[in-house]
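Re: the request from the purification team.
They wanted to know what the chain is likely to look like in 3D before they choose a buffer screen. I agreed to run a prediction and write the result into the notebook, where they can find it.
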Amino acid sequence: MHSSSLLAAARRLAPLVRAAAPEAERLRRCPPDLAQALTEAGLFQLYLPRALGGPELAPLEAFEVVEEISRADGSVGWCLMLAAAMSLNVARLPLEAGRELAGTPADYRGAGSARSGGRAVAVPGGYRVTGRWNFASGIDHARWLYATCTEMAGEAPRLTAAGKPQLRALWIPKAQVTVIDTWHVMGMRGTGSQDVAVEDVFVPAHLSTPSDAPPALTTPLYHPRAWQCVTWTVSAANALGIARGAIEALMALAGSEASTMNTQLLRDRPAVQARLGEAEAIVQAARAYVVAAIGRLWAVVSEGRDPGDAEIAQARLAITHAMHESVRAVDKLFHVAGTNAIYASLPLERAFRDLHVVVQHGAALPQYFESAGKVLLGLRPSDPGW
């Protein structure tokens, strides 16, 4: 499906997403009817390879889709964001295995974790897997669990040439997964980010790959040097979309609400006007930085060149900066709205909670500011993915 069709689908579904937000909060997952509509629109597989029937969207195309849905509801946008990352991982497998996962027509819906939470024991034809993972966002509507495990050599981990435990990614059908109800949280309640577990499940060898294996596909989206930036571009989209939705929520509120101690409408108060202007500038500037930095990175890989540290640093910095700036913008809106912002029935309250959870994601780690600074100073960052 073309990127314009997917963005049009996101805009068409946005009112449905917005209307379903209270139910998502109550169910602590994406409501089944909404998940089905998103599935039929192809929005859970934005990075799935074209060779498997997927859209293989460029990073900024996927950004726009996730941003649009996140603007309507952060939790559903988060589910799309994680699903995009999961569909990117399919490019690590040979095409035959990828086709088995995606099906015909392509309907790849993945959930899972890059953190090793299990043990994979080699047996004839594959691996026996036992483990437990947390934060499996969207597991209720997923078809496959992406499970990262430590390969075992007897009772001890198998070691790489560098002396570190060898990690292996394995794909397990949802029907073989136990979902554990742990998702009782302050924000992002509608993501269904439950714990999951498997016990002595057999996974065929062709549905697994070393976690550090290079992608089997060589089209620009799957360039190994840009892999982390592509994965996390949609994380920035989720945060910026929530912030945009919060700005719109305050604008709607300001035209009709005053406060207990002041009968003047919010829109007529200089402090509200100033904070709204500041929030708008913060979000627009952060978004422009992401578009520029990811755009430069995409231009490099699209030309068949390897991006250097400078391109990677700017892209990673733009993503992390956007997520933190989204929080800063919404904090301004939340506080200037006063007690109007604290009611759970209002989108501004949910945006405040959701964003303070979003910024805990690995894409927003403060250490990435330090890493980018090292690159600017001609040094090499120590954290992975550079």
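For the purification team: The first strand starts at residue 110 and ends at 123.
Please add any questions underneath this entry.
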